[in-house]
């Protein structure tokens, strides 16, 4: 007995995920390295800096390493090997070539934990009082009921609006007041709101 011929059709539905990056922006000091992670897309990834005088880029699999070279802003462009998808990461680098080796970063979080990053202070004033030349004081976002006083010779940046890992700057830090009465130096503010 001969069986009738039959045919079988198999349908496979492929799901394509768009190419994404996390985080989509970075704030670094000169000499500091940050990372972004690529996901989705097709094939092998590529990434390059549009301004290597400000940031340089390395790629290991899906991890993009970004190193701040000198102060300024730069865009990193990434894409997948199929050429189907691409995007950008915005990078801001603080500091300049003169402060490249001496930049000191301190962190402020009202809980005093700073996600395990040190040195960590629970108040902005404590961080200011402990700062050394060319410091960046990274502050967790939120409302700090502090009246800050800078009455010496300071050179630092108050960099607010940080997330719990201090790598993403997505909002503002709010403080009550800031009084600067020093004889010399520079105090810069970034994502800080005085109320």
Description:
This protein is mainly beta and 195 residues long. The protein has 2 domains: 20-96, Sandwich (Immunoglobulin-like), CATH 2.60.40.1080; 102-194, no CATH class. The chain is built from 1 helix and 16 strands. It has one helix at 124-130; strands at 20-22, 25-29, 33-39, 45-49, 55-60, 63-68, 72-80, 86-94, 104-108, 120-121, 135-140, 142-150, 154-162, 173-180, 185-190, 192-194. The chain has a 5-stranded parallel sheet with strand order 10-9-11-13-15. It has a 4-stranded antiparallel sheet with strand order 1-3-6-5, with no helix packed on it. A hairpin with a 5-residue loop joins strand 7 (72-80) and strand 8. The longest helix has 7 residues, at 124-130. The N and C termini lie far apart (92 Å). The relative contact order is 0.14.
Q: How are strands sequenced across the largest beta sheet?
A: 10-9-11-13-15
Strand content: over 45%
- The unreliable regions are 96-102
The domain count comes to 2
Query: On the 0-100 scale, what is the average pLDDT?
Result: 81
Strand/helix succession: EEEEEEEEEEHEEEEEE
- Fraction in helix: under 10%
Largest sheet descriptor: 5 strands, parallel
Total number of β-strand segments?
Answer: 16
**Count the helices. How many?**
1
Radius of gyration: 23 Å
Secondary-structure map:
Elements: E1 20-22, E2 25-29, E3 33-39, E4 45-49, E5 55-60, E6 63-68, E7 72-80, E8 86-94, E9 104-108, E10 120-121, H1 124-130, E11 135-140, E12 142-150, E13 154-162, E14 173-180, E15 185-190, E16 192-194
Parallel strand pairs: 2-8, 9-10, 9-11, 11-13, 12-14, 13-15, 14-16
Antiparallel strand pairs: 1-3, 3-6, 4-7, 5-6, 7-8
